[in-house]
């Protein structure tokens, strides 16, 4: 059976068995329990994670301690604090596990090494980065132009399983609405 990471990478580039083995040798596996952090504010993100199993959230806390969820990530999604990871500066966000998780991670050094050694992986991460920017742009546009109901419906349409895995108060935070407003949208 083909490793899920290989299947994921091969959605963008083709790999030989030797190439995948070499790429995979740069990753480590880690298990985290529900509520454990992958990254905390103030740390420098040294790892980029790929989720084998589980669900995580990235968020920041405002000056009043209110949580603002930036994104969720589930199986076969990548996550880190990209500003911190790329520039190697202290993180402004937290990333923690909403469920018990099994993750693969690649260190900053190993990703840089693979990117410089393998043009294919440079292309892979460039494509993933572009797709991430597109998703971010869509999210920003949705927040700016869509009503709360439209944002809710779009999230439900795109990620129906998220609603079974994430508490409603977190969905409300992600959508930028109160829990009460979310209840009205849901009815």
UniProtKB/TrEMBL annotation:
<protein>
    <submittedName>
        <fullName>cAMP-binding domain of CRP or a regulatory subunit of cAMP-dependent protein kinases</fullName>
    </submittedName>
</protein>
<dbReference type="GO" id="GO:0016301">
    <property type="term" value="F:kinase activity"/>
</dbReference>
<keyword id="KW-0418">Kinase</keyword>
<keyword id="KW-0808">Transferase</keyword>
<feature type="domain" description="Cyclic nucleotide-binding">
    <location>
        <begin position="11"/>
        <end position="114"/>
    </location>
</feature>
<dbReference type="InterPro" id="IPR000595">
    <property type="entry name" value="cNMP-bd_dom"/>
</dbReference>
<dbReference type="InterPro" id="IPR018490">
    <property type="entry name" value="cNMP-bd_dom_sf"/>
</dbReference>
<dbReference type="Pfam" id="PF00027">
    <property type="entry name" value="cNMP_binding"/>
</dbReference>
<dbReference type="InterPro" id="IPR014710">
    <property type="entry name" value="RmlC-like_jellyroll"/>
</dbReference>
């Amino acid at each position: 059976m083909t490793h899920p990471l290989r299947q994921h990478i091969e959605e963008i580039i083709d790999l030989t068995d030797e190439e995948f083995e070499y790429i995979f040798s740069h990753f480590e596996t880690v298990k985290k329990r529900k509520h454990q952090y992958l990254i905390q504010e103030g740390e420098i993100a040294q790892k980029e994670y790929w989720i084998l199993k589980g669900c995580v959230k990235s968020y920041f806390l405002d000056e009043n301690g209110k949580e603002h969820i930036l994104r969720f990530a589930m199986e076969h999604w990548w996550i880190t604090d990209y500003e911190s990871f790329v520039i190697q500066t202290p993180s402004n966000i937290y990333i923690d596990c909403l469920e018990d998780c099994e993750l693969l991670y690649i260190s900053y050094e190993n990703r840089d090494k693979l990117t410089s050694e393998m043009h294919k992986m440079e292309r892979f991460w460039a494509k993933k980065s572009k797709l991430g920017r597109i998703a971010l742009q869509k999210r920003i546009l949705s927040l700016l132009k869509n009503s709360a109901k439209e944002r809710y419906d779009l999230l439900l349409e795109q990620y129906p399983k998220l609603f079974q895995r994430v508490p409603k108060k977190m969905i409300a935070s992600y959508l930028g609405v109160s829990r009460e407003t979310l209840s009205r949208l849901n009815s």
